[in-house]
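Run log, item B.
One chain of 269 residues. Sequence copied directly from the ordering sheet:
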Amino acid sequence: MGQLDSATLETYREDGVAVLRGVVDEAWRARLADAIADNMAAPGPHGKNHADDDAGAYFGDYVNWQRFPAFREVGEAGHLGAVAAELMGAKRVQLFHEHVLVKEPGNSSATPWHQDLPYYCLDGSQTVSIWVPLDPVSKEVCPHFLAGSHKGQTTYVPRRFKTLAPLEGDTSTYQPFPEIDEARDADRLRSYDLEPGDAIAFDYHTLHNAPPNQTGTRRRAVSLRYIGEDVRFVDRPHELSPPFTEMGLSLKMGDRLPEDWFPTVWQAS
């Protein structure tokens, strides 16, 4: 029996984003909370405070699953790998990376509209991020998604978050970034009130942003980024995030992503 109902799967296929209610149980939430706390206490080389001012910290870090195994194991024993397989229609699921994002109360940093794919050293149709909050999240601080923006697998110019300038390098193969008017496009915007245990799944092509956290509550979350068997390595002509090639990954265009870097968390029997 599948992990998800048919309505959720249809919503994901149509919108490129879907809310997953009660998909992470209390025991796994506790393990992820401990892993996030440990990560914040001992950041990796990419850990930093992204806050624009001193009003509230915005911690981000990624590619630490080897140091904090819960980030990998929640896709295995925690069943998120099986959930990702259903969403992607995949027979094998690898963890591309985890991304810890913690916005403290009073944080004023907004994340602008973007799509994740052009920042990554990969391409393919079988991609999904599962954004797992560990605190109650209101629509006020929940990421916003533009439903249907994944269709056609259009890839838009990757931009710097603070200036919105295109990344340095050849971006001629990308489409110009679309103008998004939140009033005009209100019927396509998706955002959710979430309780611990809920999650949001979205395609790497889906356009999204994230508001600041002007509430009195922390917003701890980890985004678990999964890929299926049709994904291949792409060497893009600009900086990447995570910078896997700078970290030592050496592949040719079209290669599969190796399991020692990107572990398999689920496979069809």
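Observations after the first pass:
- The mean pLDDT is 95.
- The chain has one domain: 6-267.
Flagged for discussion on Thursday.
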